[in-house]
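Colleagues,

Please find the record for the two-part complex below.
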Amino acid sequence: MASTHRITRAAYLESLNEFREFIKEHCAGVSGINEEIIYDIQLAVDEACTNIISHGYADLDPGSIILDLEVDSAKLTVSLTDFGHSFEPSSAPIPDVDAPIEQRELEGFGLFFIQQSMDDMDYQVTEDGNKLTLIRYLRKKVGG
Amino acid sequence: MLKYFRVKQQPEKVVPDLGAISISLLERDATLPFTIRQLNNLPENIKRRVYRGLIPPALLTRFGIDPFQWTNTNKEPLVFLNAESNSEKVLITAHTSPDPSTEFFALELADNSLNGIELNLIVLNDPTTPRYSIDQTDDGQPTMFGTLKRNLKAEEQALQAGLAPGQVRAGLGGSRIVFEQIDTFLSMLGHRAYFLEPLTYASAWVFERRGFAYVRGHKLMDDIHREFQPGGMLHKRLDDGSPFRKRDQAHTVRGRAWAIHDGILDALDVRWDKIRMVKQIGRHAGAITFPQAEY
């Protein structure tokens, strides 16, 4: 049986700490979720929300970010819904992580961190908002 | 009540109309949304049958109105549908008697430029309570609910009677079942969400409680809450300088709403015209911008 939780906050940096605490509150103590996984989820949500705040709501009076968290025995699913400019993750530049540090671009690492922290990612633009879904499998898929 | 009276040009469609509703269209993808315009182009009896689903039957039977016939026991029509062919709006009003001043319900939905749905107007008035003419000046000029002009005397009386800005009468209650009905109606049409622009701070707070999130203005609502705290810029402006800026108004939704209606947001160099809200069908966003609020 999955447990589902939701929090809605304004899209500005001060809300990030509340999202982190929310994730910790609902993941800590859940079977199969250790501190490392919680940290990975917090990092991914931090990066995704920062993108929404910096780019999605750029030049707009910020609206909401809705964070949905679903936990079951096999996976942890985070959905972030916003109502700003849409963003196409596949069109984002891929940072050169092997480049010397002084030559690395400052932008573009957010998506990289998300991909490193999560197992699956999906992005949909619909009538009811831009929805980024991030999945972390607690039991790795066979052959995955 | 919302900014249904906002003067703006009809937005140009950025997506094509799907054409008239037909059996073959109904047989196709059931998730494809229908527009208000498509409904309005249906034959009259079908249109009426469809729009009957917009009013909770319990709201009508409460006033002795037959929810199928839309009449009272004397067979007088008390529910009125304005849904002209080719129009992108539908307005439904209901009265407790043939006298139009007994209107207790009004709802207007409209297509937007993305074939989404706008809730332009929702009114739930208790027609048995006193009416305050905040919507017109003493010489009968419309005030657009105090946003264009103000009838200060009527507004002060409304405030003292416990009303929020924009209200001509006390609320009827029952907004929960009305919003559930709208959700059901729009899901039947294939929509995933609908949008509105709240007229006042108090209405934004009510819509939050009904599950709306913010497309624009969530940060502004947080800023307003913060600045109404002791020491905040809005709190300082509650200086008893007018009936709408009493010191104790920071503690209540209505008090804040009246102060904002009176222009107190000048202190933040913003205006109450940036708020846009969204309701996801079947989902409650859980946004809270005034924790432990007293209405």
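Chain B has a mean pLDDT of 91.

Comments are welcome before we finalize the supplementary table.
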